[in-house]
Specification:
six-stranded mixed β-sheet; four-stranded parallel β-sheet; 20 helices; 17 strands; globular
């Protein structure tokens, strides 16, 4: 059921914007349905650029599941780039679903995937451009239910004024359930002729009261101590859950359909390849990692399911690369069998298979041999830190010997370069930990010379550590701007090998992510004000304006350091405590206490070191 008027108006402005093909719809395997023939309509919204959203595997999974059900029409929308947003506003055109050009305001549900906190302003843009009231307390039954899930939903409070419902955990079972429940409630409200805001709130309360993993912030209020810390979270009605749990797929992972007919973009995307999730969860419990917490328990797909899904996807798309996805691919229990089978099936077809998220262990040495005959360019690994005592602290038990020897074998097999991911600013970080990053990167480049006769390019990509909700480090404060800048300069000064590159993540972006990750709903006015002043696509270097953010927070009276940098006592109530993710707070407290003990031992072992480049602004992350 094409909205011809909107489509024709959009087509008239597309010659004035960059990459217009991202706004036209009609891609291979997209599913336009006649809205008169379905019971309900949902639009999956990705609050970032089309190219990134189309690269996201989970987005394709939910799109497939919802459209496989004939009673639902599922469409897609992405944040419009600045030029297209301007054209939509100047021409008074709504943001729409790509499949039928239906305005977002005409869907029953619009669902946001929150992958990265600095995209929150894009969420506000999409709601506003879609013709939906920006604040949840202004919506009626006739307005879409605005829901959100993904990593950002683990601390839902910052978006509480704008999102009606947060879904915590896996989406494959929760989204169809929410769709069914909301449509049943909406159909009754329409029959009753009651489309008021009050009726909408009664519907929402009945929905969240029927499950444990759906959170509607409108039914919860916070009390605060005089010092600004949280005293209590109180329900405004007794029929909504006091504690929110995580939705976990009850079916075998093999029974959850993979998107073997993914929508194929008209434009090139960063991950222009077939993606197959081989395993969900991680057997390790690194203290810094939020993903391993929220994706528990460990669930795997069978080798044959993976191979067949990959083959079907190849036949349906013609793409010449397949990426096997998981948090730790080499921990897949049938790893060697899977790699051999993929080689047998796809080698003769000339299709390359990539293995992101390889774990650094003894098995790494065998990976290059297993991949003989595949196209290879580089190896990407995430050691996170470079010293054994810091690895004990973060609970990532890997060995430099395994890393170095694995890289040696990769160079012998023809790999041209290695990319290593590290963290900077972890609790207890010392200058010797920064030294270790450079030393390890240079040692791997030297191994390349030993293996092939010439130094190999090694990139050390350094992220600025942000203590995430639901991890043992959630009580720790984030390091300061001065420390991160000092650490980046120190790393560059220590480097001697020209084949080694140090790339630090943008410090201002990390600082913004820190407050958006760790704030509560009192920070929401700052988010709204920054958006109102023009903040957009803050994850994109060419768009990010940090001074706009800091000025907005200051003008709204928000103490950024209170949320971002303050060390919180372990007994303090945190903004996300009422959202119980997997093992819960007791486990996290125990892990944090163990961490503190280990930090004391580390500090005694290496005391008073500031490095040749001078002492850090905070004593190396104390």
């Amino acid at each position: 059921m094409l909205n011809t008027a909107v489509r024709e108006a959009v087509m008239r402005v597309l010659p004035r914007v960059k990459t217009p093909a991202q706004y036209t719809g009609g891609e291979l395997h997209s599913v336009p349905k006649n809205h008169r023939h379905v019971r309900g309509k949902v639009c999956l919204c990705f609050p970032d650029a089309y190219t990134l959203g189309m690269s996201h595997h989970g987005f394709q999974v939910l799109y497939t599941i919802m459209n496989n059900d004939p009673q639902w029409a599922c469409e897609r929308a992405f944040a419009p780039w600045l030029d297209f947003e301007g054209e939509l506003r100047r021409n008074r055109l709504p943001l729409y679903g790509l499949e039928t050009f239906t305005p977002l305001s005409e869907f029953d549900i619009i669902g946001f995937s929150l992958q990265y906190e600095v995209c929150y302003t894009n969420l506000l843009t999409m709601i506003d451009l879609g013709g939906v009231p920006l604040f949840s307390n202004e919506r009626m039954v006739s307005d879409p239910l605005v829901i959100a899930g993904g990593p950002g939903a683990q601390n839902p409070e910052l978006l509480a004024p704008f999102v009606d419902l947060f879904v915590i955990g896996d989406g494959e079972e929760s989204l169809p359930w929410v769709m069914e429940k909301w449509m049943a409630l909406k159909e009754v409200a329409i029959r009753d002729g009651d489309l008021t805001h009050k009726r909408r709130m009664e519907m929402l309360a009945e929905l969240v009261g029927s499950t444990k993993w759906a959170y509607a912030p409108a039914f919860y209020v916070f009390d605060y101590h005089a010092d600004g810390t949280i005293a209590a979270v109180n329900r405004t009605r007794s029929d909504v859950p006091a504690q929110i749990e995580s939705c976990t797929i009850t079916q075998d992972l093999d029974s959850i359909p993979l998107p073997t007919k993914p929508v194929v973009s008209f434009v090139q995307t960063p991950h222009d390849r077939i993606a197959i999730e081989i395993m969900r969860g991680c057997p390790w419990q690194c203290r810094f990692c939020q993903s391993t917490v929220i994706k528990r328990p460990l669930r795997v797909r069978s080798v044959e399911t993976i191979v067949q899904a990959a083959l079907d996807s190849y036949r349906n798309t013609g793409m010449n690369e397949i990426s096997l996805l998981s948090l730790s691919s080499s921990d897949y229990p049938h790893f060697e069998e899977l790699v051999r089978r993929m080689h047998e099936v796809f080698g003769p077809l000339g299709v390359n298979v990539s293995l992101p998220s390889l774990r650094v262990n003894h098995q790494l040495r065998s990976v290059p041999q297993l991949m003989q005959g595949w196209r290879r360019a580089g190896l990407t690994l995430a050691p996170e830190v470079a010293r054994d005592d810091m690895r004990t602290q973060i609970r990532k038990p890997i060995k430099n010997d395994d890393l170095i020897e694995g890289c040696r074998e990769a160079f012998k097999a023809g790999m041209s370069h290695v990319k290593l991911y590290f963290l900077c600013g972890l609790p207890g970080e010392r200058s010797v930990d920064l030294d270790g990053i450079v030393e390890l990167a240079e040692a791997i480049s030297e191994v390349g010379k030993q293996a092939t006769g010439r130094y190999k390019e090694v990139t050390a990509s350094v992220s600025n550590f942000i203590p995430k909700p639901h991890t043992p480090y959630q009580w720790n404060g984030m390091q300061s701007r001065e420390y991160f800048r000092w650490a980046g300069d120190y790393l560059h000064r220590q480097k001697r090998n020209k084949w080694v590159k140090i790339k630090q993540h943008d410090v201002e972006t990390s600082l913004l992510e820190g407050i958006l990750t760790r704030g509560d709903r009192r920070v929401a006015p700052g988010l709204h004000e920054a958006w109102r002043r023009g903040a957009r696509f803050d994850g994109w270097k060419e768009c990010f304006r940090p001074e706009l953010w800091w000025k907005s927070f200051a003008d709204m009276g928000i103490d950024v350091d209170f949320y971002r940098s303050r060390q919180r006592p372990i007994g303090e109530k945190l903004p996300w405590d009422h959202v119980n993710v997997k093992k819960g707070r007791a486990y996290l407290e125990k892990e944090q206490e163990r961490s503190v003990i280990q930090l004391r031992v580390m500090a005694e072992a290496v005391s008073g070191e500031g490095g040749e480049g001078g002492q850090s602004p905070t004593g190396c992350g104390g």
